[in-house]
Amino acid sequence: MPMWPRDPNETGRTASSLELFFDLVFVVAVSIASVQLHHQLSEAHLFEGIVNYAVVFFGIWWAWMNFTWFATSFDTDDWLYRLLTIVQMGGVLVLASGIQAAFEDQDYVVLVLAYVVMRIALVALWVRASRSAGDARRSTTTYAVGIAAVQILWLASLLLPAAAFWAAVIVLFGAELSVPIFAERRGGTPWHPHHLSERFGLFTLILLGESLLASANAIIEALHEGDAVGRLIGVAVLTLVVTAALWWVYFWAPHHTAIGGLGLSLGYGYGHYFIFAAAGALSAGIEAEVDVITGHSELHPVVASFAYTVPIAVFILGTWLLVMRRSAGRHINVIVPAGAVLVLVDPLIPVPFALTAVILTGVVVALVWHDPLDRTTQLPAGSGDTAVSA
């Protein structure tokens, strides 16, 4: 059947069961990346761990976001669409299998090959969409050609020596990010702000849930050893308070109003790399703190505390910059970023780590007392300066 563009003003548009299934598979890869980050943090390999996590997470995030923005415009939910989506899901599972080798041996061959498989499946979807895209045909063709060209370069990068490979990675990241910019300026594709904001919100929820589960498992395992029970219970309370507070912060303001023209959409979509990465890294930070408490870490206690306060601060500041500040009054626009900064520097304050929970509770109380401002005006969906598809 033809892959007609979806109506950007369609009422009742919600995430499909296939999209939810897609998210769950991608979170498997995020979970494995978080586990590897935890190991490298506890072994005091900070720089290597952070760099590896940032690179691996880019591949996961970019493949997820590319499909998500494509689906908001051209989801037909027929057998071929489902099949090509499942191919991308298979690709991320293969990618997940290569994450350990990337962290431990700097071997990115499996990751690159799996990533290319996912991207080629998306190219097939863009080619199919171009046949019946109407006014969006120039954009869909640009997507297909641009993404395919970058994948050829990814494969060629595997032939480079180690030092040149890392330089190529930076260049190719930039190339990946530039494709939507060029494609959307060639006519644009339709998008549904409410559908997109729901998709980003659901993925954030799953990431926070994964972090909560992983942290809880680490605490339960440590409790079985019978040492430092009081401190571990404190970490458990902290984990619950932090996760709940991050959820409250993220969903306080309506997200669909942050998706407008190309500039707004670029900021919203690309900026979520930091929000998603922070949510995924939170469990690694909590687990690093547990390792310090149980004597299984080479990290200094202060550094271990930064391992969880940094993700919290990045998540809050990212959400505030992308969404909240446009819907917040003067008080919230001071309290929220100030709270993030206080959480960030908490390890340097001579007070037990529970101070983080107190700060976040204060931020939530402020949000309860202040409703978002009614700023629902945005560019009409599908008009001139459209949102970025990927």
From TrEMBL:
The chain crosses the membrane at residues 20-38, 50-72, 79-102, 108-127, 139-157, 202-220, 232-253, 265-286, 306-324, 336-369. Keywords: Membrane, Transmembrane, Transmembrane helix. It comes from the Bacteria. This is Low temperature requirement protein A. It comes from Actinoplanes friuliensis DSM 7358.
